[in-house]
FAD dependent oxidoreductase (Ampelomyces quisqualis), 418 residues
Amino acid sequence: MIRASTNLSKIMAGEQRKRNIVIIGGGIIGSTTAYFLSHHENFNKETDTITLLEATKIAGGASGKAGGLLALWAYPSCIVPLSYKLHQELSEKHGGAERWGYRAVHCGQVDMYGILAKKNNQSATKGHSVSLEKRSQKAIGLLRAAGVPKDLDWIAAEGLQNYEEMGTPLTTAQVHPYQFTTSMAQLAEEKGVKILYGSATSIAQNSGAVTSVSYTPKGSSDEEKTLPADTIILTAGPWTKTLWPQAPISALRAHSVTIRPSKPVSAYCLFTSIDLPHPSNPRKSTTVTPEIYARPNNEVYACGEGDHLIPLPTTSDLVQCDQAKCDEIVAQVGAISEELKNGDVTAKQACYLPNVEGRGGGPLVGQTSVGGLLLGAGHTCWGIQNGPGTGKILSELVWGGKIESAMVESLDPRRWGL
Ligand SMILES: Cc1cc2nc3c(=O)[nH]c(=O)nc-3n(C[C@H](O)[C@H](O)[C@H](O)COP(=O)(O)OP(=O)(O)OC[C@H]3O[C@@H](n4cnc5c(N)ncnc54)[C@H](O)[C@@H]3O)c2cc1C
């Protein structure tokens, strides 16, 4: 069981009545934290203040541009089951199926040859467009022979090398991350959380405990303001280090696209490995591994690999999106699916993943050695999955002084010397 610092314990014991809680960063972690703090029975909106301080816009970073896959087989296992269950409960309570596209899905790993040509008749591979007639008996037979489920009929049978199931609708689900995150923030606001737009610049301490946050209001570059705080929860994703340099959180840029497929596609999330022949030398090939997630409302999301070419900019609205990288993803997924090849690209985007440097995979969640300073950061590629669990345990720590819903000692920031 993880206990809060002495400072926080005093607050719990009632020695300090009015609570001033500031959450820094309105991605999924800050927004779910705001949700669970404001839905906790100990929150009294007449006496307590919870402020969610966001530099640009809610879900403006990775939390609005991620894939949205949820899985019981994700990691770390100490928080995954709690968070997966909370996603189900939140969806039931607030109409998540309609509001943020929550649904159970199939998930598989598919190894393919990229055999389809680009839309404008230029070759993505060998220079020849291959008509798949994929609902023909032959194509269906090829898919079945490789163990592809019957309703996964939107990948090119002739390019198939191997299919392996990774998850079923009992173990795998999805949300639309932008819709989910903004809904969490809105539901928190309805319960009394104040959403403030401004960039936190520093955290002040006195006698080893936090006292306030300084910030620059959005749209004004010179006027700095201060928010008094007895509790500060740092949920600034890949920007965490800019406010707390010792936090071992690094940033990795990743591009993604959304496509409206030419025909509706069934509910599958696919991890791929696609062999694409070299444009001028068919004997050479490159292997690419985009992830492809069918979503409700006739949308398919696809993301590519990360890069360190451009350092993290100061705010999420300054992230540079390289159109060529997005076009590569479109070509890669179009090389294995007629529906995607003939679909319309509806978004090209980039964002930064918060990774944990050094030992352990993260995330870092809980009390730090500074009184009243809590951390919820470094969620790597499973922050959407683990967002509600993180918000829940942080709310327990703040309001009750201890974490009760999960055994998450391994995520304690103090283990990293923080
Ligand atoms: C391409 C891609 C696909 C992904 N797919 C999945 C997936 O399918 N499933 C899954 O579980 N996870 C996925 N992830 C991971 C997930 O997106 C992240 O782990 C998660 O979004 C991190 O959330 P966060 O709130 O920590 O950070 P962010 O979303 O980056 O939010 C941080 C917020 O803090 C704000 N901020 C920063 N500095 C300040 C400051 N000084 N003052 C005030 N506010 C500040 C920012 O503006 C931002 O809004 C994916 C990630 C990527 C990149």
Notes: Residues 120-134 have pLDDT under 50 and may be disordered. The chain has two domains: 6-101+175-246+357-416, 103-169+251-354. The radius of gyration is 23 Å. The longest strand covers residues 194-206.
